[in-house]
Design goal:
This protein has 391 residues and is an alpha+beta fold. It is built from eleven helices and 14 strands.
Length: 391
């Protein structure tokens, strides 16, 4: 910190202000607020979740209360309304707070309560991205990507600005919170933010046109069984320049999608088996975290998590107790996966490529195949608009 211009102390030019409170705009302000707020919650009897530091848990007899923090926005829920109200009263006495009632919107995500489910969507946020790109009247497309790029690209002059490209792509990353079906396309666009080429601008426009036709799409949260299952896939050497593979995996709690990831692998894989195995190892780490988080919610996973992979060689390698000399370069990944199998935390199953849900997270697909896997991801249109019923 330095003294503000025009208010320098000539006698003590090296002195700076000693803060008694965190001030908005300072880098450490959010951290100080988090420490202050969570310290008060701990004094009320809350404890931190082992899986997520932003989740606070309160337990009294059979009642359990959960409080989720995002800077100065909080969500609170639990099994006892009286205890929740008591906690809110104590928080209001300590901090200046505004109670907004039942959650209908949180961080730009619209929460719609249906008879048998909740529906999460970001239609207004998606429309704001189209407004930013000046494409509110564009023709919609049924697929955000294409299996074969055209030989020439008609570059949209407005989108050719690198600063605007980065701004829109960054906004699209947040949109994937309720649109996992566009996660692969957004991941591809994000890899060229430093120097977008005509092909990237063309794909950005395609994605925005797809969003135009699916403005009211989102994710349902349905009340089904609490069995955790996951799907893992990898596109071997999918990047034509670096030849690095793309990992994609997703996890369901019952019929509800709760976690998904699209990520380019850090190293080049020498075979499809190696790329698939690296994806499996990354998913295994994610499953460990999910099981720990579900345990905090009182959802004990006393049985192994079913993990589906469409590569038989990777499955054989995971179940083979003899470590082959040709796989020493993936020894750490091998140990993570095998340890979880031996501890009976995960159970590895083969699955047909046609039924592999994670396929939509690793590559460009034809439109019929894309729609098929989008349905498997449970991404659908707002039921209140077309009168459908969530199953």
């Amino acid at each position: 910190m330095t003294q503000p211009k025009g208010f320098e102390d000539t006698l003590h030019p090296d002195y700076v202000c000693h803060l008694h409170k965190a001030i908005y705009g300072l880098k450490h302000a959010p951290r100080q607020w988090y420490n202050t707020f969570t310290s008060f919650l701990v004094s009320l009897g809350f404890c931190h979740s082992q899986a997520d530091p932003s989740l606070m848990i309160y337990q009294q007899d059979s009642a359990k209360i959960f409080l989720l923090i995002y800077v100065d926005d909080i969500l609170i829920t639990g099994s006892n309304k009286d205890i929740i109200q008591s906690i809110l009263n104590k928080l209001s006495n300590e901090f200046s707070m505004k109670h907004l009632g039942l959650a209908t919107k949180f961080l730009g995500i619209h929460i719609q309560k249906l008879s048998n489910a909740y529906f999460l969507s970001q239609s207004k946020y998606a429309f704001s991205i189209l407004t930013l790109a000046d494409l509110t009247r564009c023709n919609p497309l049924a697929n955000p990507s294409c299996t074969k790029n055209p030989s020439t690209f008609n570059v949209e002059p407005f989108l050719a600005d690198p600063a605007l490209y980065r701004r829109i792509t960054g906004s699209l990353q947040y949109l994937t919170l309720t649109r996992p079906n566009i996660a692969f396309s957004v991941n591809m666009l994000s890899q060229h933010m430093h120097d977008p080429q005509p092909s990237n601008i063309y794909m950005l426009k395609r994605l925005l046109q797809y969003i135009k036709g699916t403005l009211n799409f989102g994710l349902p949260i349905t009340k089904t069984n609490l069995n955790l299952k996951s799907f893992s896939d990898a596109d071997w050497a999918g990047d034509p320049i670096t030849r690095r593979s793309t990992s994609g995996y997703c996890s369901f709690l019952g019929d509800t999608l709760i976690s998904w990831t699209v990520k380019k692998q850090r190293t080049i894989s020498r075979s499809s088996t190696e790329s698939e195995y690296r994806a499996l190892a990354a998913l295994t780490v994610d499953i460990i975290w999910l099981r720990r988080l579900l345990n905090d919610f009182g959802i004990s996973q006393n049985y192994p998590t079913d993990l589906y992979c469409d590569n038989m060689s990777a499955i054989a390698l995971a179940n083979n107790p003899i470590f082959h000399s040709r796989t020493k370069h993936i020894e750490i990944d091998q140990k993570i996966l095998r340890d979880q199998i031996q501890q009976n935390n995960i159970r590895l199953h083969p699955i047909s490529t046609l039924d592999q849900t994670a396929d939509i997270l690793t590559k460009s697909l034809s439109t019929p195949r894309f729609h098929q896997l989008r349905t498997k991801l449970t991404v659908c249109q707002d039921p209140s608009i077309f009168g459908g019923v969530l199953e």
